[in-house]
Amino acid sequence: MRISLPTSFGNGLHRLRLDDGRAAIAKIRRGAPPDFFAAEARGLEALCATRTLRVPQVFDVGADAIVIEDLGTGQAAPADCERAGARLAQMHCTAGTAFGFETDGWCGDSPQDNGRDDDGHAFFAQRRLLAQAVRAHASGMLDATDLFRVERIAARLSDWLPPMPPVLVHGDLWLGNLHACADGELALIDGGAVHYGWAETDLSMLILFGEPPPAFFAAYESAAGIGRKWRERAPLYNLYHLLNHLNLFGASYRSGVRAVIDRYA
């Protein structure tokens, strides 16, 4: 890396000052999967290019680390939440020519297939739901009946999910990745899962593990000119993330996966 990191830095997050005085954070992971941090850098740069929500600047990236702007940590006021909701709606106006991305990415520690597809239902079925379900079955986290039922759901996505265009999405937008900066402004962090997908997938994950204040969604819905129907569809979108958490963190997520399967299969 061009930025020399202290040899005392082990795996994890480390605050540092660059030679020019800027505050930075080094995220270090020795032996990270190939392209892990490069995918995060590409995602952050794509988000930044929309000039909507704040995104940390990428200072440097290598095989084992990424150095990004230190945004500090604060608390968002109601006005910050409203602005962030409206800006997320603006970000979701960034249209793609197809679903997917220029390269594959990472959703947490799970590789994410971003192969291009003109069909959003096929993309979500094959590269999101089924990719995770097959992996969970292979490891014994799901049984054959579970896998069959996910396959049935994947084949019928168009029964529940309306056609929507591909737009730039964060892809892993749980509440922790909507970061309150030192001044309270909300920013997007951890961009490894960025791709062109359905806008409603970002909204849905924002209510999976806690959620922002109502003002955030009111501002989003007003700016996007949509109602609240997306909340009815959220469990189906979030099945992908529940399956991913099952694969990453184990059987404690199986009941959540099966609850969604029971609802749709």
Q: Your description of this structure?
A:
There is one protein chain. The chain is of the alpha+beta class and 265 residues long. The chain has one domain (72-265): Aminoglycoside 3'-phosphotransferase, Chain: A, domain 2 (Alpha-Beta Complex), CATH 3.90.1200.10. Helices cover 42% and strands 15% of the residues. It is built from nine helices and ten strands. The chain has helices at residues 36-49, 78-91, 120-138, 144-155, 157-160, 199-205, 214-224, 230-249, 254-264; strands at residues 12-17, 23-28, 58-61, 65-69, 105-107, 110-112, 167-169, 178-180, 186-188, 195-197. A four-stranded antiparallel β-sheet has the order 1-2-4-3, with helices on one face. The chain has a two-stranded antiparallel sheet with strand order 5-6. Strands 7-10 form a two-stranded antiparallel sheet. A hairpin with a 3-residue loop joins strand 3 (58-61) and strand 4. It is globular, with a radius of gyration of 19 Å.
| Helical content (DSSP H or I, runs of 4+) | 40-55%
The computed structural class is alpha+beta
Q: How many structural domains does the protein architecture include? A: 1
Distance between the termini: 49 Å
Per DSSP E runs of 2 or more residues, the count of β-strands stands at: 10
Major beta sheet summary? 4 strands, antiparallel
Q: What are the SSEs and their pairings?
A:
Blueprint: E1 12-17, E2 23-28, H1 36-49, E3 58-61, E4 65-69, H2 78-91, E5 105-107, E6 110-112, H3 120-138, H4 144-155, H5 157-160, E7 167-169, E8 178-180, E9 186-188, E10 195-197, H6 199-205, H7 214-224, H8 230-249, H9 254-264
Antiparallel strand pairs: 1-2, 2-4, 3-4, 5-6, 7-10, 8-9
Helix pairs in contact: 2-7, 3-4, 3-8, 6-8, 8-9
